[in-house]
Write a structure and sequence with these properties.
By secondary structure, the protein is an alpha+beta fold. Helices cover 43% and strands 23% of the residues. The chain has three helices and five strands. The chain has a five-stranded antiparallel β-sheet, with no helix packed on it. A hairpin with a 4-residue loop joins strand 2 (65-72) and strand 3 (77-83).
Length: 125
Amino acid sequence: MLFLQTAAPAQQGFTFDPLTIIMLVVLAAMIFFMFRSNKKRKAQAAELQDKMVPGSEVMLNFGLFGELREIDEERNEALVEIAPGTIVRVHRQTLARVVEDHAEEAEVVEDRADDAGDADPRDRA
């Protein structure tokens, strides 16, 4: 009983030690980045849906390339032509991305490299 009488009076309120402050800052940062990445993911999905129009070249999740013929929103299916006259019916979620024309990009890069160089590489030999 003597110990109880000599004990220091209880502190009023909650004190923030440095570890608690650091943990709260880390928690706030994690929540911020979670919402930010979720927003980016939604924007990318919306952009992909805008590009998914009949006639565009698409790649499916399992690496199959083809031309998108039709999207059935009601049945959640897509018709993809993988070869002339060969049309496959797939689930809409298997449409991974729209294939951009990389051949045109490669030509532009080569043209820029030729413009940057002072002479034709064949002349150097």
